[in-house]
């Protein structure tokens, strides 16, 4: 997600189901108001340190990450103590009572998570990628079912994907296609927020031509 360092004006980011573990690139996104990080590899709540500097953050979805731990109350209280401006956490509205309780039950995060050196971090990342290419442990493998796709669509306030769209694909094909589709969709939506009127008009024209081509191809196949 290093691209976020170059997107200071972005307002909404959805990175759910993407294997993310480091939130440092987000600390420059000063206009960020909604952040969706469900089901990633964020292991420590210390990563919240990088979100504490975002004055406009109001919505955060962090559920289904290792950092949530076995105690849901402690997790929620810690997040709210460090991000008291949140209005919604994990799709649940934040109350004044919770914010007050968070001052008692939550843990204050005052420093970023400990990191290895750049060299070691790169080596570790490379080794992990190499291992992942030969083995795919069930606990770490990112799966993307129709349900996951529709959760992402829900975060983006878009219509759910009809089930019949997947009926003609095998499970393996659906999984691969869905992962690719979500990654491409997230990237496009991320970058569109940086475009001006002229740029958006070009996108609109390109999409229209693309849709016409698909429609023409479907008619020919019929």
TrEMBL record:
Residues 151-166 have a biased composition (Basic and acidic residues). Residues 123-139 have a biased composition (Low complexity). One of its GO terms (biological process) is cytoskeleton organization. InterPro entries: Leu-rich_rpt, Leu-rich_rpt_4, LRR_dom_sf, U2A'_phosphoprotein32A_C. It comes from the Eukaryota. Residues 115-139, 151-174 are annotated as: Disordered. This is Cilia- and flagella-associated protein 410. It comes from Pomatorhinus ruficollis.
